[in-house]
Amino acid sequence: MNENEIGQFIVDSAVKLHKELGPGLLETVYEVILAATLKDSGLSIKRQVAIPIEYQGLKFDEGFRADIIVEDKVIIELKSIEKVNNAHKKQVLTYLKLTGYKLGFLLNFGEALMKDGISRIINGKIG
Question: What are the φ/ψ torsions at residue 96 (nearest 5 degrees)?
Fold first, then answer.
């Protein structure tokens, strides 16, 4: 699967999950269930993945953690807050730049409608 196909599957799964559970639960609840749903569909999933940062030849693993990485291609960052801001979107873009991945999603399960909580973030061109 390419990034766009994976992305469509992620969005569909997130919308279904949000419809079934509604907004306002803890971020971790959505993370665990979304990861299990994607894994049950045959996708390779990693949760709470350290994203190292390099500075002047030194590598630090303490920098960042991606909530979910799908097929070693797409990063998912989950929130369960009233509204996301630009800092949250920049966080995902930073993860993409550090990993070299091209596609990420910021999913905010705190929105009344999931479609309003989906931000698709691109790092460069997707093939």
Answer: -65, -45
